[in-house]
Every structure is written in C-alpha cells, then in structure tokens.
Amino acid sequence: MLKVGINAYGTIGKRVAEAITKQDDMQVTGVIKAHPNYMSYVASKRFKLFVPDNSALKAFENSGIKVEGTLENLMDESELIIDSTPEGLGEEYKKIYEKKRIKAIFQGGEDHELTNLSFNAYANFKEAWGKDFVRVVSCNTTGLIRTLFPLTEYGSIKVRANLVRRATDPDDYQKGPINSIVPELKIPSHHGPDVASVIKGLDIQTMAVKVPTTLMHLHFVNVTFPGEVKTEEIIGKWKKYRRIAFVSGKDGVKSTSQLMDIARETGRERSDLFEIMLWKDSVSVKGNELFYYQAVHQESDVVPENIDAIRSMFQLKEKQDSIDRTDKTLRIGELAYGR
Q1: Three-state DSSP state, 191
Q2: pLDDT digits 0-9 by tens, 239-288
Q3: For this structure, is 139 an active site residue?
Q4: Catalytic residue among 34, 67, 139, 302, which?
Q5: Where do the domains of the chain lie, and which CATH numbers do they carry?
Q6: What does the alpha-carbon distance between residue 126 and residue 112 come to, in Å, rounded to a whole number?
Q7: Region 43-60: what's the mean pLDDT?
C-alpha cells in the first residue's frame, strides 16, 4: 500500500487523512501538528503524530501528547506528503520535499506556479500521471470546474461567474468579516484564471465577495454557448457526474444551512458534502445562455480530488477507475436526498 503523510492536520488535512483510511491502495503513515492543543490530542489517538521540527518537541512533551518525531521522520516513512499547511508556506516546504526526493500534493491556497500543474480529477487526471508535485485547486475553483467541465462538450463556451464566499471556516473565531460584505476588488478574482489553468483556453471571468457566514460558498453562474441549448440536455450531462448533486427549492431546500442539514441527516461524517450542490430549479436557459446556482462545502469538496491525484501521480489507477473507487468509499452520489 502507498504510504502517505499529512503535513498539517487541519480543515483539509484531517479530512484527506480520514479519506485515505477508506482506500485499499494507500495508508496514512502519520500527521503533523505544529502546536499542542485539543486537535493534536484527537489526532494522536487516531494517527501517529509528528511535529514540523525539533523546536516543537518540548511543548508537546509538556502537554503530555505523544509525538513520534518530526517532519523529517515522517518523510522517511512516506512516499508522498499531502501538504495542507497554511497558504504561503508551500514554496518553503517544496524545497524540503525536493531535497528529500519525496512527492507532494499542495492545496489551492498556493499559486499555480508552485507546481505548474493544477489538478481536477474530471478535467485533467492524466496530466498528473507520474508527476512529483501537483496542486489541487481551491474549493471554489473545484466547484466551478466540476459543473463547467461537462459543458465543454459543446465546444467553445464563455463563462461569467459571481462567487459569494464564506468568511472563514466554522472553527475559526479569529477571522471575519462579522458585519460587512467585502468585495474582492481585483477583477477577475483569482478563481477565473485558476479554472483556466485546468480547463485550458476557457473564456472565464469571475467576481467575488466575502460575507459573514461559515457554512458554504454560493456561486451564480452564466454560461454562453456557441448555439442554442436545452435545459433538460444540460441537466442530463451533469447527471453523468456523481460529484454534482441536485437539490430543489420545491422540496424546501432554499439555503446553505439546509444543505448542511442534509449532510447531517444523511449521516455524513463531519457533515461533509463532497459533492457540488446544484439547485435544479435554478437551471434556466435563454437561447444560448445558461444560468444556475450552486453551493460549495469549502471544508470537503477537494478531498476526493486529493485521493485521485495520489493515484495519478503513482500511476495506480486509470481515471474512471480511480474516481469510481474514491466515490464509492466516500459515499459520493449516495445522498439520501440529492438525486
């Protein structure tokens, strides 16, 4: 089994670690926490716990939390590192991985240029084949690619998307905004170019704002096609992809809070929604233009992409086989409500 270490057991790291435990071709060798706290304690009961370097050992010892070693030791036991460290640290850690000659997957907080290969399982699985360093795009970019990639079958499309972004994650009490709507003044927002780094040549422009919520992101998307399209035809294409799930306002699902309630009521671990939640009754076609709403659970939608990226980098499975295995183990496409 492929041996995978997790550098930073945070929002993404802990979910990827858990997802790896459900696979039959990979295993978690250990996870890294930088500071002793409740999450470090929880992690130590589930996985072998490591720290970034020797400077952190004393603090963990004083806290009574058992540590197996440092990042250096974790790399000795691993074939690949999932780097889910805070954004901006990727360049520093990449040098460490290169020196150790170990493969690594970075997350969407890092720039595309760090690896020059941004990944989405649907759109460019084969591009990561055998590569040493890959970046899984951000939660928002993943959400856009999931629903836009099936539409590229129509040929050249033009995308204009607006993103309403959550302020921070539910466990983060230090960030905001609390009582403001904050526009991203650079246009396009970084999401558009990020999508185009995966779906090459896509005509896409994006704008984004942050709002005082922690649950999910919301996108409203406009796509222009070369010719007229039909609503049923579009929905039919999306239904071929399990990582897109449909909900309906007619069934009382009218908010992101209700989407999270679906996750809870259907027994999803950590209330995760790996799928992109798309309001079926928002899908509207006017001639050659398409409009729709979708919601993105920022804590979990990139998790299956990390699993598939691992398989591509080690040439373990072909695209559809990998996606099928990942989806089955994570119960993707099996929501009690959503189809």
Answers
A1: helix
A2: 999 999 999 999 999 999 999 999 999 999 999 999 999 999 999 999 99
A3: yes
A4: 139
A5: 2-137+302-329 (3.40.50.720), 140-296 (3.30.360.10)
A6: 17
A7: 96
